[in-house]
Design a protein that fits this description.
heterodimer; A: 434 residues; FAD/NAD(P)-binding domain; 3 domains; 5-stranded parallel beta sheet; 10 helices; B: 557 residues; alpha/beta; Rossmann fold; 4 domains; 7-stranded mixed beta sheet
Chain lengths: 434, 557
């Protein structure tokens, strides 16, 4: 069957969206991939390694990102979003806003001279690194970003935001790629079907004051810890806290999951395993580290997961059943107060670093997206689906995959991306027949 | 000859235990090496650009990529050569991650080993010659093995996309295990209804042939052009298929493997599946005391089931809920290790079940003793550190998933691999979770590891889409690594013919020599190894390449 006259919009460029887009493109369908951020890769590209194989995340995902960039059937639009949608027969007329990058994509060679010259260099908190470390106002989010092009952060660029700057970046750019007259684009496009892969945010544990996040140095979230471990992160992959190597690690699971108080009764499905992975990474890099892990139940349910959990224990990670009541400042360290439910003892454990295994939340922009597309969401704000038809939304012709419909790990997201693409193909083929 | 050596850090993975800069420096001085460099991620865009730019700038005619194992990004690096007009078979991948940096911690020794491995690749590549891939037509039809929810999902999708589908199910009916389920959590739909919906859609279609009480008996050919023979009640059927989706499901764990559970010997001890099938007919007192045991046949190394079966915590919750709903005054206690209520809605279900009065005890069961007045369950409550002994009228075993009974047979026929637990092995758990090592053969559902209904549907459709993407093109490329016979040397002894697992070697009666059918040859090299007169060799892996690779390894010593 020839599908080359068909157009599908994939919203979101994480592993779910990438999987769906590549599958569709391999069947000859023209895909427009809309990514709201400056690069595709989503959350997975922020990870250092992935469980249970400890494969490096970049090595697993980066080639797929390059495939997206090179595939003739895929048109990638970064820093872009949907503005409106009207149904047109079986298809959709979608309004798209491409925000300005202020750097000509064809001319930029990603040499980095502009960022070196930028007066804001080293002054803008870096989102990709979970605000750890600083970047310039003109930047590339990470070295392997796709598109492999720089862009200007309009809020932090002195010229864009205040109209006052010597524009050293323009002098530094040899190819004349920087264009402050860039206003972006707004247009409408017709699509035969839409696949949503909006991804997720992580729970902000600031409200749990007892755990000390945001007030005690050394208390970090799981995703922040990923960036600290990653070679593309702020410490180039060395596990450091204020320049020193921490020795005592305390991991706390179920922060913002299985927790009515934080508004999430559900299990986030990834935190048990990513914590086990963190413990393995620490053990590999800091041989004499002390590692404690607090848990309620260890949900090592996937292929090879339980074995991985066991190896983690054998490598000397001490699992303590019970979630700490509080983390307080001690004498040059943190003190974790926890009731060990297996021994019934109250324990005080000293730690240099406390990592909170923060749970999954719907992406903040999912609400807006769903309103534009008239898509129903569940009580938590994830896109509503049925377990027997896992990618069907209430809107005919709009499909969802990945964390958009609820927590999933990478293998499950890849499977759901394929499933969504298959439903999308059927929908299009049916339209062609009628 | 102009060789480029590229060494990947793989983030921390290689750099952590191999001195990559020293390696790059070392090879820079080597004869014929025009460029030698290292980079954090060669597979990322800047890394790829580094290689393509070097090919152009230095006019490279050999490229050595020292990184992960070739199975990971084989095609990716080949494409870089193609793009620059260099024959892709002039690429040599050297595994310095799986074979080196992941093996030991000693930086000095690892660096030395990596050096030898790369040198070996360098020597071997000197003998490389350009090879051409052959384009073959593919058959736009698919064989689906297994008519459970996963196989049905795959068959429906492919049929909807206009492809000819042959669905082969071993049982008399379609639907697999899902058909037996009274209410499929969380949708609460009857399993039989879910299956009937799918089956009705598929039946009567021109492009879907369904064979029940049937099994695959023979399988030959190569990607796009397989020949499948199926034994049906009406005799043998043969058809040509482009590819296969294997969805043969799982086997419920048989608790009789653990005699201490008394399953099969006392009617008061049943499995979750028994309860599902005939729970309503069970004779129980008015206020029955019921125990639910988790992890029966899962997370149990002693019986060779170290893995978690992924679905049984939810099944245990369903069993507990069912009893509680039927008998208001019942006493239901669930014994678990970790409550794995991870699916969407699972945690809420767990909480609701607790609110309905089901007790959950984190514990290890030491023994079960059937007594006339009740079944005595003894164990240790791991939360309170206490030993307990309680009496029940019914014990429900939440059984896990075991590998499919016909897994080995199917694996042998299709020449695909099983993992350590006898489920099918995926090519890569994240990058290629539906692919096997054989092109055009995909796996779906529980036969590659325990999955629930939703996950099995996802898998079935995703696998089918992969296959569709391949076949819809109408053509495919086959690897040029095929054996060639030197007619002058061949003595006609026919040893190679017997060694060939792909049945690609035929005997030429006229010329009295062996002849290789190129399309069928898998390039395994078995014939090379067995030929007493060195008359048959494998393109791309000729003896001189291998001999010089060994020399490279030895010379470095």
């Amino acid at each position: 069957m020839d599908h080359s006259d068909k157009n599908v919009l994939v919203v979101g460029g994480g592993i779910g969206g990438i999987t769906a887009a590549l599958e569709l493109a391999s069947c000859g369908i023209k895909v427009t991939m809309l990514e709201s951020g400056p690069s595709i890769g989503g959350r997975m590209i922020q990870l250092d390694k992935t469980f249970p194989t400890l494969d490096c995340s970049t090595c697993t995902l980066s080639p797929k990102m390059v495939e997206v960039a090179l595939n003739h059937n895929i048109d990638l639009m970064s820093v872009s979003q949907i503005t409106h949608m009207t149904r047109k027969g079986p298809g959709f007329l979608v309004g798209i806003k491409k925000n300005p990058r202020y750097v000509d994509q064809d001319k930029c060679t990603a040499c980095g001279s502009c960022a070196e010259a930028c007066v804001m260099k080293g002054r803008v908190p870096h989102e990709f690194n979970m605000l750890l470390g600083k970047r310039a106002a003109i930047y590339i989010p990470f070295p392997q970003a796709i598109p492999q092009k720089y862009l200007v952060d309009p809020e932090r660029c002195l010229f864009v935001s205040r109209g006052k700057c010597k524009k050293a970046c323009m002098d530094a750019c040899e190819t004349g790629a920087i264009n402050f007259d860039d206003t972006g684009e707004e247009f409408e496009m017709y699509f035969d079907s839409i696949v949503l892969a909006p991804g997720f945010d992580v729970y902000d544990p600031t409200e749990k004051q007892e755990l000390g996040y945001g007030t005690l140095p050394g208390v970090v979230t799981g995703l922040e810890f990923e960036r600290i471990c990653s070679v593309t992160g702020p410490t180039a992959g060395d596990i450091l806290l204020d320049g020193k190597e921490p020795k005592r690690f305390y991991f706390i699971q179920c922060v913002g999951s299985r927790d009515r108080q934080s508004g999430a009764r559900y299990c986030s499905r990834v935190c048990c395993m990513y914590t086990a992975k963190h413990a393995c990474i620490v053990r590999e890099r800091i041989k004499d580290a002390e590692i404690y892990i607090s848990y309620i139940d260890v949900r090592a349910y996937g292929k090879g997961y339980d074995e991985f959990y066991k190896t983690t224990q054998e490598n000397g990670a001490l699992y303590i059943r019970g979630i700490p009541g509080e983390v307080v400042e001690g004498d040059g360290c943190l003190i974790v107060r926890v009731e060990d439910m297996l021994s019934g003892e109250m324990r005080e454990i000293e730690a240099d670093m406390v990592v909170l295994a923060t749970g999954v939340r719907p992406r903040k922009t999912t609400g807006v997206l769903c309103d534009i597309l008239s898509i129903d969401r569940d009580e938590y704000g994830f896109i509503k689906v049925d377990a027997v038809t896992p990618s069907l939304t209430n809107a005919d012709g709009i499909f969802v995959c990945g964390m958009g419909s609820g927590p999933k790990d990478v293998p499950d997201t890849v499977a759901s991306g394929g499933e969504a693409a298959s439903r999308c193909m059927e929908y299009i083929a049916k339209g062609a027949g009628s | 000859m102009k060789i480029g050596v590229f060494i990947c850090h793989c983030g921390h993975n290689i750099k952590h235990t191999v001195d990559v800069e020293t390696l790059a420096e070392y090879f820079r001085k080597y004869p014929h090496v025009a460029v030698s460099d290292d980079y954090p991620f060669l597979c990322s865009e800047p890394g790829q650009n580094m290689i393509t730019d070097s090919i152009e700038q230095h006019g490279l005619d050999r490229v050595i990529v020292a990184s992960c194992a070739p199975s990971l990004h084989g095609e990716l690096f080949k494409d870089l050569l193609r793009k620059k007009g260099v024959n892709p078979f002039l690429l040599r991948r050297v595994s310095i991650r799986e074979h080196c940096s992941w093996v030991g911690d000693d930086v000095e020794e690892n660096t030395e080993k990596a050096k030898r491995l790369i040198l070996s690749g360098l020597y071997g590549s000197a003998h490389y010659v350009p090879l051409e891939e052959k384009q073959v037509e593919v058959n736009k039809s698919a064989l689906i093995l297994g008519g459970g929810v996963s196989g049905l999902s795959a068959a429906l999708f492919l049929s909807n996309m206009g492809m000819q589908v042959y669905l082969v199910e071993q049982a008399a009916e379609l639907g697999g295990r899902v058909r037996e389920l009274k209410s499929v959590w969380p949708s609460r739909k009857a399993g039989a209804d879910i299956i009937a919906g799918m089956e009705n859609e598929l039946r009567g279609r021109d492009n879907a042939a369904v064979f029940t009480s049937s099994k695959l008996s023979n399988f030959e050919g190569f990607f796009g052009n397989y020949q499948a023979t199926v034994a049906t009640p009406d005799g043998e059927e043969r058809f040509a298929v482009g590819g296969v989706v294997v969805a043969i499901g799982f086997e419920p764990f048989d608790p009789q493997i653990k005699p201490e559970l008394f399953y099969g010997r006392d009617p008061r001890i049943v499995t979750t599946l028994d309860l599902e099938r005939s729970g309503d007919g069970l004779k129980l007192p008015d206020n029955p005391r019921v125990a639910v045991l988790h992890c029966v046949g899962s997370r149990d190394e002693q019986i060779g089931r170290p893995y978690c079966s992924r679905i049984c915590c939810i099944n245990a919750l369903r069993a507990a809920e069912a009893v509680k709903e039927r008998f208001d005054g019942s006493y239901v206690e669930s014994f678990y290790m970790d409550m794995r209520a991870h699916p969407r809605g699972g945690e809420e279900f767990f909480e609701d079940t607790q609110e309905k009065g089901v007790l959950f005890t984190r514990g290890n069961i030491a023994e079960i003793v059937p007594e006339p007045q009740g079944i005595v369950v003894r164990g240790e409550d791991t939360l309170f550190g206490e030993v307990f002994e309680r009496e029940f009228d019914l014990v429900v075993l939440s059984i896990g998933m075991s590998a499919p009974a016909t897994g080995k047979e199917v694996a042998n026929l299709l020449k695909i691999s099983l993992d350590k637990d006898n489920f099918f092995l995926e090519a890569h758990i994240k990058l290629r979770p539906f692919d096997t090592a054989v092109k055009g053969i995909f796996i779906a559902g529980s036969c590659s590891g325990p999955k629930d209904v939703e996950e099995s549907i996802n898998h079935g459709r995703a696998s089918a889409l992969k296959l569709y993407g391949f076949l819809n093109l109408g053509y495919a490329f086959v690897d040029p690594f095929i054996s060639v016979v030197d007619p002058k040397r061949c003595s006609g002894c026919r040893v190679c013919e017997q060694a060939c697992v792909a049945r690609a070697i035929k005997f030429d009666e006229e010329k009295h020599i062996a002849h290789v059918e190129e399309a069928a040859c898998m390039g395994c090299g078995l014939c090379n190894a067995t030929c007493p007169s060195s008359a048959i060799s494998l393109r791309g892996y000729v003896d001189t390449v291998i001999a010089d690779e060994i020399s490279g390894l030895l010379e470095a010593m």
